[in-house]
TrEMBL record, chains A, B:
PROSITE patterns: HTH_TETR_2 (PS50977). The keyword Cell membrane does not apply. The keyword Ribonucleoprotein does not apply. This is Bacterial regulatory proteins, tetR family.
DNA sequence: TGACTTATTAAACGCTGTTCATTATATTTA
DNA sequence: TAAATATAATGAACAGCGTTTAATAAGTCA
């Protein structure tokens, strides 16, 4: 067969990505295969290579969409809850949104962190951009909490907190490695409370030194 | 060929695991394959199935050895530095040892977290045991810092800190996602200092409430 | 209607994990 | 020593994988 033109290139791309995401959601990241995606969208496996350079490329695209999802979710929530919420609450909200996201989409979330392109791991521009946007969400409330803190300290705090929350998500996502019941919220609260209390204290003192 | 008896079953197992680890170290976790391991040890691929149920099983064994390595490393360091080191320093040492380990063996470390057995992810007993041992390393200095804190709070603190350090290791290991230069040590110090300062304060107050 | 163009495929290649009948060797028995 | 037995290990097979590309069916135009 040839020349069906049922779908444009862009539509084909969209179909493939959606099918890939469904496959990942339903069967896990190791179930992702060119032939399975193709079967789901009624094309041959070779057709995928008309719109993606390879399966790696397709994964990067899925990751881009996952990242966009997360960003959209976070900015929507932040926008919505902006009504003079104390910054600590804003940070808590961000952390829990991230955690919920990782729990709701465990496989897509896993793909983001477990899909290493084999050779040199070149970080695409859009990813750097998206990560910076995520950091921005955390940075704003932190700055409110300590308006005069220097940029370096602020940057460090953003990353420390992000790593902390990510670690909670990572270890609780797959591993039933510890704690009975879902105590992830308690972990988040614990981390934020203790870290922030001292960080605010130190950061507001700092300016008078 | 048959019946060479060059190696006992136990020796064959050991050979295969070592070859697998080397392969992972040199070429990454996706390069691991039965045929490649077999070639390295001068056996056929089928021979591996005489000592492992499948490649998944082999991975679990490698992960077990990696975990043992980490545990040995930590307990050796803790033993060595025991001479009245302040507990904060002990915690810092543990964190940095963990981080160094993940940097020194990035691929074996990745295998531990990225090797999900497809179907039900059953956590083997030895892993639960090993993880508890790791938690024990953190728990001891924490208890020194707040001798009268209740068990639940202590357990929570152990896990919060572990997740935090793990998050730093995870995000800095692959991702050049942020920060120029190796600022992982700064992140560790930042996390521990702020978290612990307030945690100690709260935990010592707690007993008088 | 016939020539041209092109979207899509089917088959091929070399790889993968895994199984199992076959085989070559070691050991035991006669 | 020779024959019988037991078994360590293999090699071929199967189904599936990512990827490439010659072949083909269908749309377009003269």
């Amino acid at each position: 067969m040839a020349r069906r033109n049922d779908h444009s290139r862009e539509e084909l791309k969209e179909l493939a990505l959606t099918a890939g995401e469904q496959l990942i959601d339903e069967e896990g990241i190791h179930a992702l295969s060119a032939r399975k995606i193709a079967q789901r969208i009624g094309y041959s496996a070779g057709a995928l290579y008309l719109v993606f350079t390879n399966l790696d490329d397709l994964c990067w695209h899925i990751n881009g969409r996952t990242m966009a999802m997360l960003n959209t979710l976070l900015s929507a929530q932040i926008e919505q809850e902006k009504v003079n919420r104390p910054p600590q609450e804003a940070l808590r909200l961000i952390a829990k949104t991230y955690l919920n996201f990782s729990a709701e989409w465990p496989n897509r979330w896993a793909l983001m962190f477990e899909h290493h392109t084999p050779e040199s791991i070149i970080c695409p521009d859009w990813l750097i951009h998206a990560v910076n946007q995520l950091f921005g969400f955390v940075q704003a409330p932190l700055r409110q909490l300590a308006p005069n803190v220097n940029d370096e300290s602020l940057q460090l705090a953003v990353r420390t907190l992000w790593c902390g929350v990510h670690g909670i998500a990572a270890l609780s996502s797959r591993g039933k490695l510890f704690l009975e019941g879902d105590q992830t919220d308690a972990l988040i609260d614990n981390l934020l409370t203790h870290y922030l209390t001292n960080w605010i204290q130190e950061s507001t003192n700092e300016q008078f030194v």
